[in-house]
Write a sequence for this structure.
């Protein structure tokens, strides 16, 4: 059926999807005014032709021309050849002047404005919703991070940034912050005490404290100080047993080994005994070469003379071999007291401090002269295994 486009007035099929002239939607979008029969849009509340209020317009019927009751009456009267009835005239025979049908005015711009306003409101609402939701998600993540954290600064940052956070969140973070501050105070007191016992007590009370690693380091340091002060193999071994990954483990092992090396062993005793046996044998046999082979080039002390030379020792040898001496024998009593000490700091070369006694038996032509004497000997042996100091003190004399 051909109708008039309600928008532009051009002829168009009521089955057309859009008006070929103005492009507005037609199919399913138009109906007729129940009063005047004018083709109008379904969403219109008032007929633009007769200004009738639309409560519900009847759709266009296929292959049927709709005619309003008033128009039908007029057409029926015309068919009967009659003129306008009384209902069409004013009293006195004058006809009623009917206003020409008004052209429908477009309402699309007004509708578009309403739609645009609604869309803006929706966009604002959605924007606010997503912003609010993002803020809530950020606050929740910050809260969860703060509760898991052991750093007071992280918790304080949450309180500063989220002043409007839920009360339950702020209360929980504040309680956690108070507990962490108490832990920090306990740690400060333990450190200031300088006591291993207090630090161990702190670790027992706060095993998950952020200061746990620092506490272990502090205990390691205190144990090392104590081991150094004691300076025994037992102390260093105890430190190594308690701190297998300690900061001073290698140093403790080195000091332990140095103390072990300072122990006088059987090899040390044999070396000392052999050296002095050779020395006294050379004296008794008056063997200069053998005697010199046992001596350092310079002796720090020989028979209480400082900076003595080999010549001083040879002179002593010649002195004891007086003209009336037939034989001299020296007998070592093997009552050794040997102490090893490093020749230099952090050195595995040693100097030996030695104490022992020796008997001197002298056979003389003059029987009235001394023939037996015991000496207390203090000596030192260099790192080269040479006598670098030797002093003797007479302790027993027999006639």
């Amino acid at each position: 059926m051909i109708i008039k486009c309600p928008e532009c007035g051009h002829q168009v099929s009521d089955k057309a999807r859009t008006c070929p002239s103005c492009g507005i939607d037609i199919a399913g979008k138009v109906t007729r005014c129940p009063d005047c029969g004018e083709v109008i849009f379904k969403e219109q509340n008032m007929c633009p032709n007769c200004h009738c209020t639309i409560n519900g317009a009847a759709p266009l019927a296929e292959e049927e021309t709709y005619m309003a009751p008033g128009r039908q009456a007029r057409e029926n009267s015309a068919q009967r050849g009659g003129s306008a009835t009384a209902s069409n005239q004013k009293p006195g025979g004058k006809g009623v002047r009917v206003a020409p049908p008004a052209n429908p005015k477009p309402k699309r711009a007004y509708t578009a404005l309403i739609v645009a306003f609604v869309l803006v409101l929706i966009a604002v609402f959605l924007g606010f919703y997503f912003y609010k939701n993002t803020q809530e998600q950020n606050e929740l993540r910050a809260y969860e991070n703060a509760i898991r954290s052991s750093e007071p600064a992280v918790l304080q940052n949450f309180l500063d940034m989220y002043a409007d956070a839920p009360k339950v969140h702020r209360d929980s973070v504040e309680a956690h912050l108070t507990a962490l501050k108490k832990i920090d105070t306990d740690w400060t007191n333990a450190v200031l005490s300088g006591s291993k016992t207090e630090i161990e007590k702190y670790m027992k009370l706060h095993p998950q404290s952020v200061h746990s690693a620092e506490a272990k380091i502090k205990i390691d340091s205190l144990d090392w100080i104590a081991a150094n002060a004691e300076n025994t193999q037992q102390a260093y071994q105890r430190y190594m047993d308690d701190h297998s990954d300690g900061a001073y483990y290698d140093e403790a092992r080195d000091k332990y080994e140095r103390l072990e090396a300072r122990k006088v062993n059987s090899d040390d005793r044999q070396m000392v005994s052999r050296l002095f046996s050779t020395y006294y044998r050379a004296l008794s046999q008056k063997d200069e070469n053998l005697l010199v082979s046992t001596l350092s080039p310079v002796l720090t002390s020989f028979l209480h003379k400082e900076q003595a030379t080999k010549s001083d020792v040879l002179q002593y040898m010649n002195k004891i071999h007086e003209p009336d001496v037939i034989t001299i024998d020296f007998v070592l009593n093997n009552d050794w007291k040997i102490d090893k000490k490093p020749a230099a700091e952090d050195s595995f070369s040693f100097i030996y401090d030695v104490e022992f006694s020796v008997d001197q038996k002298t056979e003389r032509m003059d029987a009235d002269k001394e023939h037996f004497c015991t000496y207390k000997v203090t000596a030192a042996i260099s790192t080269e295994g040479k006598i670098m100091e030797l002093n003797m003190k007479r302790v027993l004399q027999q006639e």
